[in-house]
Task: structure prediction
Amino acid sequence: MSSASSDPSAVHVLGALALELRGDAPVASPHLAQAEAGELAELIAHDLARFAPEAAGLELLTVGAHYDPVELLRPGWPLHRELDQLAARAPRAGGEGGRIIAFGTHEGRLPGALTPSPDYTGGPLRLVPFVLGGDADTVATVGDAFERELLERGMAGAATALAAQGSFGLLVEHARYLTAHDLAAMMALQYEHAGLAPLWPVLETALLEPEGETWLDAPPEPLVRYTGGEARIALFSPQAWHAHYAPESTCDSDEARERLHRRFGHFERRQRQIAAVLGAHGVAVHFVHCSAGEDCRAALG
Result:
């Protein structure tokens, strides 16, 4: 995509090499030394030029590391932004365009904030992020081409897939390229399959319109308002939950009270799940207490 967030600005194409893994073999290396990172970057640049020849004239930024999708799909695209900011400090050699910058480890450490989080290892999909930047018209042309082409025919070259598999010690089933928009669409589908479809509009707003506003107000789901760059979640007291979510239910027997207690417990577990998913995507979560008799939507204002 041509970035729709504040940084990197609209003169970048954001994407990733997506490595779909097979089996549960341990990952030998989550990141690469500088030389290996550079070799992988050269292969990525060659692949991207196959999909849009104009990409060869843009600057490619990438890193010899792989990440979970939640580490890329965060407001402001922080991993892509970090690549751009680190590259801005790199020395330039020669003319503009066509430069490849790949960040690898030095003495076992990646620069800046590029180290993959140990909290999100072991998933079936790992992503190597890249940024293409340069002339705005060329970026727009390449971005449009990638949005049309990558999802349908963005398979990585065999040499690239084998290099990623060998260098990282992965068992790669498929290796393909995706734009940031493609990644978001893929995550939306995964969350739909996981029963989290009601939450996606909140995440989508945080990713694509971080200063925007949206609500999750669809009982029996928790009440969530995204605004001001954070998700505000109503923390209901049992009485307030009863009034908001089960006003028709009575507490005139032990059985009825137990049934309401179970429903409230399920609601609290769902609330914790939603808060955890938002937090994994880097969305700040703020709980707002809501008491019986209070307008809980107004409390989130």
Q: What stands out?
A: Confidence is low (pLDDT under 50) at residues 1-9. The beta strands are 12-21, 59-63, 100-103, 125-133, 172-179, 214-216, 224-227, 230-236, 284-290. The first strand starts at residue 12 and ends at 21. Residues 12-193 form one domain.
